[in-house]
């Protein structure tokens, strides 16, 4: 079988990615590429950042060549109206017209839901800072190909302050936890078949710890998720315990299942 053509969409603005690199952190698109290539070398991967493009003229003429699209994370909040967010929503709508298979992760799911008529708000039950505990697959998720061979209850890397509150029409809700009722979904829009995840199977816990350290001041002073450095370190210690019991293939199973889904449709 010929190589699959994948488009990875970077959700962060360029300034945030520059800050990541200064701190020695991979961009989210780079993390996605590494995780995808762990499962398959037979992939042609392009990266596109809608935030940096005044128009989509460079990519739209050839967009139909992609077998699938993965849209990853971002530091943005979908309800904060700005040009970068408007560009991302507009590009997602273009993808709905042109790409059949979409995996929308965290911010990507929030953009997809918004573009399809659903809604996202600040989470009322708190945030996931580096980890989501006790995500539980529901009866609709148990037999869904997204969760083939996945344990019914699991932990995952995650970093989000917001949550989906209104699903697009016809969407199937697949998993929840105590922080976010909507942890994963499946819906269709245009020609696209979209699998959405609120958590990050493609990002390591080690990167999450680095992100916590990178965002330490914001987490204490702006987000008010922690009182001080001591509380942050206690949380990091908790995630380090999870690293000892976490297994890579289990953690990234959703990514592998989506690739298998993609190959079967190619």
Task: Kindly summarize this structure in a few lines.
With 266 residues, this protein is an alpha/beta fold.
Can you describe this structure?
With 266 residues, the protein is of the alpha/beta class. It has one domain (4-265): Rossmann fold, CATH 3.40.50. 38% of the residues lie in helices and 23% in strands. It contains ten helices and 13 strands. The strands form three sheets. It has a nine-stranded mixed β-sheet with strand order 2-1-3-4-13-12-11-7-8. The protein has a two-stranded antiparallel sheet with strand order 5-10. It has a two-stranded antiparallel sheet with strand order 6-9. A hairpin with a 2-residue loop joins strand 12 and strand 13. It is globular and about 50 Å long. The protein starts with a strand and ends with a helix.
Largest sheet: 9 strands, mixed
User: Termini distance?
Assistant: 9 Å
Count up the domains. 1
**Oligomerization:** single chain
Order of H and E elements: EHHEEHEHEEEHEEEEEEHHHHH
User: Could you estimate the helical fraction of the residues in percent?
Assistant: 25-40%
State the total count of DSSP E strands: 13
Overall 3D shape: globular
Low-confidence stretches: none
Number of helices: 10
CATH architecture: 3-Layer(aba) Sandwich
Instruction: Please list the strands of the largest sheet in the order they lie side by side.
Output: 2-1-3-4-13-12-11-7-8
Proportion of β residues? 15-25%
Q: Indicate the mean pLDDT.
A: 96
The computed structural class is alpha/beta
Computed over alpha carbons, the radius of gyration is 17 Å
CATH topology group: Rossmann fold
Classified by CATH, the class is: Alpha Beta
